[in-house]
Structures are given as C-alpha cells and as structure tokens.
C-alpha cells in the first residue's frame, strides 16, 4: 500500500504544529519537509530549528527533502533535528555515494531526488545503496504547480529498474499530485505520495487527508 507524505510547504507557517496534527488525524504516514536554500532553488523555506521544534509535535516519521547546495555539510544537523529520511538531490551531489554512506551511518534512511530533466542513468549505480528515489514531477522550488506528464515514463522505467535488480527501494513522487491524479500516479509505480497544496489549501485539511488516504487504499 502506498504511503501519504503531506508537504508542509503549503501549510500555514504560523500554525505548523496544528497543521501536522490535522494531517495526522486524517491518516498521514509521514511528514514531508521541504528545505530550500535560495541557491539550488530560487525559493527559501524552512530549516533546521523549525524541524527540531516540530519534532516534539508528532511521532510520524520526518521525510526531509533537501533542496540545498552542498547538502553533505548539514547531514548531522538534520539527523539531530529529528529527520528519519534524508533525501539529497543528485544534481548537487558530485560525491553522491559518499553522501549516502554518511546519511546511513546515522541509521536514518537515505533518499536521492532527481529533477524532471535528470536521467535515471545518473542514479543507476547507487540504486542498491539507497532506500528511496524521489522523482520530482515539477521543477523544484514551489508548491502548487502542475505535474509534468512526461514523468509517467520515468516512474514506470524506474519501477522496472528496481524490480529487475531485485531491490527494496521506494519511489516517492513529489509535485502536482492531487485527488484527481493520485490513483494514476500509484498505478505508474509510486510507493510514497507527496501532496502539499492539494492538502493544505483545502478548506478542511483533515477531511482532505482522509480523501487522499481512501483513494490510495482503494
Ligand atoms: O518539493 C517540493 C517543491 O519543490 C514540494 O514537496 C512539492 O512541490 C509539493 O507541493 P505540491 O503538492 O503543491 O506540488
Ligand atoms: Fe518536496
């Protein structure tokens, strides 16, 4: 069964604790935290101290998506802040294998994120070292964008690669997932669904989370 990881990027930043409780009540499996540095992506979001304070609010795993340059400099800080999964972008990690080993040395899960234009070839030789691949289905930096349709082929191909190698690697799909397309995305091969604006911009966040979960479980 696929898991749901609501992205706080579209939450009300003045009520983050409350909004986490709402998605938890609705049945969220993870909490997706988008960290942006204004360099790798043109936006700046939240960082280490915010994650650390939110750690007290819930026991749900923290799925931390680092959209920052030189992520290797901050792995220990994110572990100490309470991250359970740390995902770094392939595009900013020339020593990806070393960074993955570093993440895993803290006994947290390691993920690699790839932008829409990044080929699967770039992660082929580290697939057996990681727990998750985050496929960006929008260009990173902002919530509320539309899913890039071409990513369907990338997700299907990645699922096949993982299966052929007999690996236990999850596929997380991030960007533009809504109630209308979540079933389709799961059919392509998604194991973890990220949804930001589709959950937090809804009138009733608890009900909306439940609707996602019902569709995912169908
Ligand atoms: O990584 C991200 C943006 O870079 C976000 O996780 C993603 O965009 C979620 O927002 P939405 O569901 O609104 O597309
Ligand atoms: Fe994200």
Explain how this protein is built.
The chain is an alpha/beta fold and 218 residues long. The protein has one domain: TIM Barrel, CATH 3.20.20.70. Helices cover 33% and strands 19% of the residues. It contains 8 helices and 8 strands; from the N terminus they run E-H-E-H-E-H-E-H-E-E-H-E-H-E-H-H. It has an 8-stranded parallel beta sheet with strand order 1-8-7-6-5-4-3-2. Helix 2 links the parallel strand 2 and strand 3. It is globular. The N and C termini lie close together (9 Å).
Give me a quick take on this structure.
The protein is α/β, with parallel strands linked by helices and 218 residues long.
Strands, helices and their partners?
Layout: E1 3-6, H1 16-26, E2 31-36, H2 48-54, E3 62-67, H3 75-81, E4 85-89, H4 96-104, E5 109-114, E6 132-136, H5 151-164, E7 170-174, H6 182-188, E8 192-195, H7 197-200, H8 205-217
Parallel strand pairs: 1-8, 2-3, 3-4, 4-5, 5-6, 6-7, 7-8
The structure holds ribulose-5-phosphate and fe (ii) ion.
């Amino acid at each position: 069964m696929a898991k749901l990881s609501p992205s706080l990027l579209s939450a009300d930043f003045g009520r983050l604790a409350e909004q986490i409780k709402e998605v938890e009540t609705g049945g969220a499996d993870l909490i997706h935290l988008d960290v942006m540095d204004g360099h790798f992506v043109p936006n700046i979001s939240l960082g280490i101290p915010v994650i650390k304070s939110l750690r007290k609010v819930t026991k749900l795993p923290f799925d931390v998506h680092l959209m920052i340059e030189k992520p290797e400099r901050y792995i220990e800080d994110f572990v100490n802040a309470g991250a359970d999964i740390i995902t770094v972008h392939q595009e900013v990690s020339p020593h990806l294998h070393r960074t993955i080993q570093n993440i895993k040395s803290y006994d947290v899960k390691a993920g690699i994120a790839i932008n829409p234009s990044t080929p699967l070839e770039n992660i082929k030789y580290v697939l057996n070292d990681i727990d998750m691949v985050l496929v960006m289905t929008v260009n990173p930096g902002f919530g509320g964008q539309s899913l890039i349709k071409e990513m369907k082929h990338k997700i299907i191909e990645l699922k096949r690669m993982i299966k052929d190698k007999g690996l236990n690697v999850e596929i997380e799909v991030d960007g533009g997932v809504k109630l209308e397309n979540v079933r389709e995305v799961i059919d392509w091969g998604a194991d973890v669904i990220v949804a930001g604006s589709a959950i937090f911009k809804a009138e009733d966040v608890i009900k909306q989370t439940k609707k996602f979960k019902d569709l995912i479980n169908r």
